[in-house]
Design a protein that fits this description.
Elements lengths: L1 H25 L14 H11 L11 E2 L3 E2 L1 H10 L9 H4 L4 E2 L10 E5 L7 E8 L2 E4 L8 E4 L3 H4 L2 E6 L3
Antiparallel strand pairs: 1-2, 3-8, 4-5, 4-8, 5-6, 6-7
């Protein structure tokens, strides 16, 4: 008779466990429900470092103010200047840190765009807040601010990565 008494409790426990499973998994990085806290000062420093390069010429393979920047070179340089070791190339930057939902992007997060069908067809920049990001766009252009509201970028955004927590 004691075993019959436990069954309703076990059903309730099983039901609650299923409801809470996504919350438990979110701590493992499988799900990201976001983080609406303001960006820490260290993340703002990364953004300000990138801002200091507005107007610098795009340079394929470039990762310094003296040589110019490609997209991932700017991200790499800005993080490195602030003591963060992140990968140099965009395909690896697309996997570093922790993924967050687009609506929870905050200053200093890496934004990743799929710009071609090539396996290496990724473009990265640094989110600056208010749906804007800084990046080194392409040959013949300079480091600048763009908006995620622009259909070109909005339709190509595939990930937001948080390195600074």
């Amino acid at each position: 008779m004691a075993s019959q008494h436990k069954k309703p409790h076990m059903r309730i426990f099983s039901f609650l466990a299923l409801l809470l499973l996504p919350l438990a998994l979110s701590g493992c990085g499988l799900f990201s429900f976001g983080d609406s806290d303001p960006a820490p000062a260290k993340a703002i420093k990364v953004v300000n470092t990138a801002y200091s390069q507005i107007g610098k010429q795009y340079s394929y393979g470039g990762a310094s103010p003296s040589k110019g920047f490609d997209c991932s070179g700017l991200v790499y340089w800005a993080y490195r200047k602030n003591g963060y070791k992140i990968p140099r190339v965009s395909t690896a930057q697309a996997k570093c840190g922790k993924g967050v939902a687009q609506q929870f992007a905050r200053e200093g997060d890496i934004v990743v765009f799929k710009i071609s069908q090539s396996p290496r067809g990724l473009h990265t920049g640094i989110y600056t807040g208010n749906s804007k990001f800084i990046h080194s766009p392409s040959k013949g252009k300079t480091v600048k601010i763009d908006t995620l509201r622009n259909n070109y970028w909005k339709n190509k955004l595939v990930a937001v990565r948080r390195v600074v927590r």
